[in-house]
Amino acid sequence: MPKYLRRPAGLLCASLLGATILLVASATHAPAGASALPQGALAPTDAQRAIARRIGVILQEAHYRHQPIDDLMSVEIFDRYLRFLDGQHSYFLASDIADFSDLKMRFDDMIHSGEVDPAYGIFARFQQRNRERMQYALSLLATEPNWELDEQFSFDREKSPWAASRAELDEVWRKRVKNDALSLLLAGKTWAEASDLLRKRYEHVLKRVDQITPEDVF
Residue 52: is it exposed, middle or buried by C-beta count within 10 angstroms (0-12/13-18/19+)? Predict the structure, then answer.
């Protein structure tokens, strides 16, 4: 068995983590103070703050690697969080990433203290950008695209730089919506049918954005 699959330590960590979540989840779910968050943004609960602290202890003391939750790990957590939210660089602007940069070294502190509001703040910005993109995509459906233009759409934007402006991101999404529509046209749909299907798709995404709960963010 590979060294990284040591069952006793893994089982111990899983058992402790499971017990912690069950114990703390039964505590109060009233939102704690979240003055750093935008008005109306989702906020962590007291229970989630406590879980964050206890998970930090479990990972450092019970996990077989005894990986320290320090600044080095903080940077990795920060980068993975951004990749999880917007791995294709299609929502955040370069200015958003610049705003978040001072948090890169603070994720370890958030885990230790349970004050995870900054992570929720990043998610609040993602929700805002997601709404903006869906609303823009819906607005594009009012007019049939010009199919005569000689242009390309890049599916994989993982290595692309963050858009420097909203106008630059609008252009990315113009091509994305056009590509979505073209795929439907090639499948035999008319423009009216394609635009109706896409409208429903984008409206569903927009609705889902507003149904996210603090538990989803956590």
Answer: buried
Beta carbons of 45 and 109 less than 8 angstroms apart: no
* Backbone phi, psi, residue 93, to 5°: -95, 165
Q: What is the DSSP string of 31-83?
A: B---TTSPTT----BHHHHHHHHHHHHHHHHTSTT----SHHHHHHHHHHHHH
What interhelical angle do 166-186 and 191-209 show, nearest 10?
130
In whole angstroms, give the CA distance from residue 139 to residue 182.
17
- When mean pLDDT is compared across 19-28, 149-158, 175-184, the lowest value belongs to 19-28
pLDDT 10s digits, 101-114: 999 999 888 888 88
List all residues 6 or more positions away from 167 whose beta carbon is below 8 Å from its beta carbon. none
Q: Is the Cβ–Cβ distance between 34 and 117 less than 8 Å?
A: yes
In contact, 83 and 89? CB cutoff 8 Å: no
Q: Are 91 and 129 in contact (CB under 8 A)?
A: yes
Residue 73's Cβ-count burial label (10 Å; 0-12, 13-18, 19+) is middle
Taking the model in full, what pTM does it have? 0.80
Q: SS3 of 177, please?
A: helix
**Chain centroid, CA 160 distance in Å:** 18
